[in-house]
C-alpha cells in the first residue's frame, strides 16, 4: 500500500525538483534516477497486488486491480527507458542550439508532470479525478509539443490544445451524466463517482442515461486515443514535439485514454444490457484502423508515418475491446503491452535516425544500416514487429484477435486482414530505402544508448515466443474482470 | 408541469438560466474582442448566481463554494487576464468579421432545440428543482463549440473554450448537486492552468505568424504536399 503512495509522490517531488534544477548538466541523469526509482516502486506495487489482490487506499480514492496494475508497471518501464534515451538526446539537441536552459528545465519538469498524471489516471478510482488527470496530461505535454518554437510546432501544439481540450470537455459531460445516474439511486453522496461503487451498482443505473453518457465519454476520451475522425492532432503533436515526448505519448497516453474508455464500457455494459457500447467502439475502432492504414501511404515525415501507425493500432485495440468476449479482450490487453513497447522503441530509433540525417523527411533519410547498424537494424526489426511479423508479440495478439473475430463476426475478418496488409505495405515502402539506401556523403553516427531499444524489442520478442506465467495470470484476471469470463 | 406551480426561487433559477443561453447567443454575434470578454464575464456571473440560488433552494451548502469558485474564476480572473492580454498584444481595435451571421444564429437556435431533445430522458428522471436547466447547460456547451468553429481569432477560440467549461460546470450543478468537492477543485485548477497556458500561446502564435488569426496556422496537413 505504501508503494502506491510513493508511486504518486515520487514523480510529484521529481517535478518540483526538476522545475528548479532541470537545466543543470546532470538533470537528465536525475530524471533517469527518478524514473528508475518509480519503476522499482511500481514493481513492488505489482508484487503487492499479486499477493493481496485488489489494493484500495483508505477513502477508496485509489484502487489498483489486475487491469490497471500491469499498465502501471508498463508506464513505469516505458517512462524509465524513454528517460534513459532522453538524456543524451536532449543534450545533443541543446548542443545543436535548438534548446536553451529554460526550455530544458521546462522539459524535465513536465516529463515528470506527465508521468504523474499518467499514474493518477491509472490508479484513481474516482471518475472525476480520472478526467482531471487526463486533462492534466494534456496541459503537461502541450508546451512540450511546442518546445522548439518553430511555426510548425506552435501550430501543432495549438491544434493539440484546442482539439483535445474541446474533446475531453465532452468526456466531462459524460462524467456528469455518470454522476447523475449514480445519484438517482440515492444515498451514495460523494462516493457516487467512485468506479468501484458504480461497478457494484451498475445494474441499477438508468440505461438511457448511461447510453448517453457513454457516447460523450467515448467521443471525449476517444479524441485522446486518436480515433478517427478526431485524430488530427495526433500526427502533428507526435511529429513536431521532441522525440522522447512522441515515445511516451504513443506508448503511454494513448493506452491510458483507451483504459479510461474500457473502464466506462464496463460500467455501461453492466447497466444497459445491450451491446451498444461495444458496437460504437467497434465502429470507431475499425474506421480509425482503416483510415490510418491508408494514410500511411501518403506520409513524407518519418515521425508522422509512425504516428499514423499508432492510430492504426489504437483503432485495432478499440475494436477488440468493443467486440468483447474473453479471447478478444485478452488479445487487446496483450496488444496494448506489445504496441506500447514496440512503438516507443521505434520512436527512440526514429529520433536517432532523424539526428543522423538531420531531418525528419523520409526522402532524405538514407543508408541507416551502413552509417549506424544499431539504429538501422533497430528500425528494421521494430517495424517488422509493429507490422505484425512472427515471432514478435504483435503477431500473437493480432492472431488472437483475428481468431476471435472469426468466431464472433466472421464477415469483419477480411476487413482486418486487408487493413493489416495495407499498413504493412505503407510501412515497408518507406522503410526499405531508409535503411538500405545509399548513405549520403559525410553522414556520421551519433552517440546512442542502445540499451532501451534492445530491452523493448527483446521483451516484445519474448512475449511473442512465450508469455511468462505471472503475466498471463494477470491478463487472465484482467480479462475476467472486463469480459466476465476467463479465456479458454 | 405548469410554470405557475414553481416557487419564486425556482422561477428565478429558470430566468437566470435563460439569460445564460442568451449570453451565449450574444457571444456569437459579438464582433469586438472587448465586447466578447464582457459578455463572457456576464455569463460567468450568471452561472455563479444560478449556482448560489440552487444552493439556497436545495440546501446543499457546498454549492456556495462552487458558486464562489465560478465567480472568482470565470467572472473575474479569466476575463481580467484576457483583457490585459488583449491590451498587451495591442489587438483591442481589431474587429472580427462574423461570417454568415444569419446562418450562425439559425444553427445556434437549432442546437438549443437539439439539446432539449437529447436531455429529455434525463429531465424526466430528475427530481431536482434545477432539472429544466440541464438542456441549457448542454446548449451552452454546443454554442461554445459553434463559436469556436465560426471564428478565426485565437482569443475568440479561448473564450469559446472557457464558455464550454461554463456549460459543463452548469451541467454538474443543474443535473446533480454539483460534483464532489475534490473533483470540482481539480477541474478549477485545470481551467486556471489552461487559461495561463493560453496566454503563453497567444504570444507564441503572434511571434510565429505575426497575427492571431488561426486560419494562418496551415503549415501542417493530413497529407503532405
Topology summary:
The complex is a heterodimer of chains A (488) and B (225).
Chain A: H1 2-21, H2 27-52, E1 55-56, E2 63-64, H3 66-95, H4 101-123, H5 127-145, H6 151-185, H7 195-200, H8 207-225, H9 233-240, H10 243-272, H11 276-295, H12 302-323, H13 326-357, H14 368-371, H15 373-386, H16 393-408, H17 413-436, H18 451-465, H19 469-483
Antiparallel strand pairs in A: 1-2
Chain B: H1 8-29, H2 33-58, H3 62-89, H4 101-118, H5 120-125, H6 134-150, H7 154-175, H8 181-209
Helix pairs in contact in B: 1-2, 1-6, 2-3, 2-7, 3-7, 3-8, 4-6, 6-7, 7-8
Describe this structure as you would to a colleague.
Chain A is about 75% helix and about 0% strand. Chain A has 19 helices and 2 strands. In chain A, α4 packs parallel to α10 and α6 runs antiparallel to α8. Chain A starts with a helix and ends in a 5-residue tail after the last helix. By secondary structure, chain B is an all-alpha fold. Chain B has one domain. Chain B is built from 8 helices and no strands. In chain B, α4 packs antiparallel against α6 (about 135-150). The longest helix of chain B has 29 residues, at about 180-210. Chain B is globular and about 55 Å long. Chain B starts with 7 loop residues before the first helix and ends in a 16-residue tail after the last helix. At the A-B interface, α5, α6, α8 and α9 of A face α5, α6, α7 and α8 of B.
Amino acid at each position: 500500500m505504501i508503494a502506491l503512495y510513493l508511486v504518486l509522490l515520487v514523480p510529484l517531488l521529481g517535478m518540483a525538483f526538476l522545475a528548479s534544477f532541470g537545466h543543470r548538466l546532470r538533470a537528465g541523469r536525475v530524471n533517469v534516477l527518478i524514473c528508475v526509482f518509480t519503476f522499482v516502486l511500481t514493481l513492488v506495487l505489482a508484487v503487492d497486488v499479486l499477493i493481496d489482490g485488489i489494493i484500495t487506499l483508505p477513502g477508496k480514492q485509489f484502487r489498483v486491480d489486475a487491469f490497471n496494475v500491469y499498465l502501471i508497471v508498463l508506464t513505469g518501464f516505458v517512462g524509465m527507458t524513454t528517460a534513459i534515451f532522453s538524456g543524451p538526446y536532449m543534450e545533443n539537441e541543446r548542443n545543436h542550439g535548438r534548446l536553451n536552459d529554460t526550455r530544458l528545465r521546462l522539459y524535465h519538469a513536465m516529463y515528470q508532470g506527465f508521468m504523474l498524471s499518467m499514474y493518477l489516471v491509472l490508479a484513481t478510482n474516482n471518475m472525476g479525478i480520472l478526467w482531471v488527470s487526463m486533462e492534466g496530461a494534456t496541459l503537461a505535454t502541450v508546451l512540450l509539443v511546442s518546445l522548439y518554437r518553430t511555426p510548425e510546432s506552435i501550430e501543432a501544439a495549438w491544434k493539440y490544445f484546442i482539439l483535445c481540450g474541446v474533446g475531453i470537455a465532452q468526456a466531462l459531460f459524460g462524467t456528469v451524466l455518470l454522476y447523475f445516474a449514480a445519484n438517482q439511486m440515492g444515498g451514495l453522496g460523494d462516493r457516487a463517482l467512485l468506479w468501484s461503487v458504480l461497478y457494484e451498482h451498475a445494474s441499477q443505473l438508468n440505461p438511457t442515461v448511461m447510453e448517453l453518457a457513454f457516447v460523450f465519454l467515448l467521443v471525449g476520451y476517444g479524441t485522446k486515443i486518436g480515433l478517427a475522425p478526431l485524430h488530427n492532432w495526433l500526427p502533428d503533436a507526435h511529429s513536431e514535439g521532441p522525440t522522447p515526448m512522441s515515445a511516451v505519448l504513443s506508448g503511454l497516453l494513448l493506452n491510458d485514454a483507451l483504459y479510461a474508455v474500457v473502464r466506462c464500457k464496463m460500467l455501461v455494459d453492466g447497466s444497459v444490457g445491450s451491446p451498444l457500447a461495444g458496437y460504437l467502439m467497434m465502429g470507431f475502432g475499425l474506421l480509425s484502423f482503416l483510415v490510418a492504414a491508408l494514410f500511411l501511404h501518403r506520409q513524407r515525415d518519418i515521425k508522422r508515418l509512425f504516428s499514423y501507425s499508432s492510430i492504426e493500432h489504437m483503432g485495432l485495440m478499440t475494436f477488440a475491446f468493443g467486440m468483447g468476449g474473453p479471447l478478444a479482450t485478452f488479445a487487446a490487453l496483450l496488444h496494448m503491452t506489445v504496441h506500447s513497447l514496440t512503438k516507443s522503441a521505434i520512436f527512440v530509433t526514429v529520433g536517432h535516425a532523424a539526428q543522423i540525417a538531420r531531418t525528419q523527411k523520409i526522402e532524405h533519410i538514407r543508408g541507416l544500416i551502413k552509417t549506424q547498424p544499431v539504429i538501422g537494424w533497430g528500425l528494421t526489426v521494430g517495424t517488422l514487429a509493429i507490422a505484425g511479423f512472427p515471432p514478435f508479440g504483435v503477431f500473437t495478439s493480432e492472431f488472437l484477435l483475428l481468431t476471435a473475430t472469426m468466431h464472433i463476426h466472421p464477415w469483419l475478418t477480411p476487413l482486418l486482414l486487408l487493413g493489416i496488409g495495407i499498413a504493412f505495405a505503407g510501412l515497408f515502402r518507406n522503410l526499405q530505402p531508409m535503411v538500405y539506401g545509399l548513405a549520403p556523403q559525410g553522414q556520421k553516427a551519433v552517440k546512442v544508448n542502445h540499451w532501451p531499444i534492445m530491452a523493448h524489442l527483446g521483451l516484445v520478442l519474448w512475449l511473442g515466443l512465450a508469455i511468462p506465467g505471472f503475466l498471463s495470470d494477470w491478463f487472465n484476471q484482467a480479462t475476467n474482470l472486463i469480459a466476465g469470463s476467463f479465456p479458454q | 408541469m405548469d410554470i405557475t406551480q414553481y416557487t419564486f426561487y425556482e422561477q428565478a433559477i429558470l430566468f437566470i438560466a435563460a439569460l445564460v443561453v442568451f449570453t451565449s447567443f450574444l457571444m456569437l454575434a459579438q464582433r469586438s474582442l472587448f465586447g466578447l470578454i464582457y459578455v463572457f464575464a456576464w455569463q460567468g456571473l450568471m452561472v455563479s448566481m444560478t449556482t448560489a440560488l440552487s444552493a439556497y433552494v436545495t440546501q446543499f451548502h457546498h454549492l456556495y463554494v462552487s458558486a464562489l469558485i465560478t465567480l472568482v474564476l470565470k467572472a473575474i480572473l479569466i476575463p481580467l487576464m484576457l483583457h490585459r492580454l488583449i491590451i498587451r498584444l495591442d489587438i483591442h481595435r481589431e474587429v472580427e468579421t462574423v461570417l454568415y451571421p444569419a446562418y450562425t444564429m439559425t444553427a445556434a437556435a437549432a442546437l438549443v432545440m437539439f439539446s432539449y431533445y437529447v436531455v429529455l430522458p434525463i429531465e424526466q428522471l430528475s427530481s431536482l428543482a434545477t432539472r429544466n436547466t440541464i438542456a441549457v447547460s448542454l446548449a451552452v456547451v454546443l454554442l461554445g463549440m459553434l463559436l469556436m468553429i465560426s471564428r478565426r481569432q485565437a482569443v475568440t477560440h479561448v473564450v469559446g473554450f472557457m464558455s464550454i467549461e461554463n456549460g459543463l460546470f452548469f451541467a454538474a450543478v443543474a443535473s446533480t448537486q454539483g460534483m464532489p468537492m475534490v473533483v470540482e477543485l481539480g477541474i478549477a485548477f485545470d481551467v486556471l492552468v489552461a487559461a495561463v497556458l493560453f496566454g503563453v500561446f497567444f504570444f507564441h502564435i503572434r511571434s510565429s505568424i505575426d497575427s492571431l488569426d488561426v486560419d494562418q496556422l496551415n503549415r501542417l496537413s493530413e497529407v503532405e504536399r
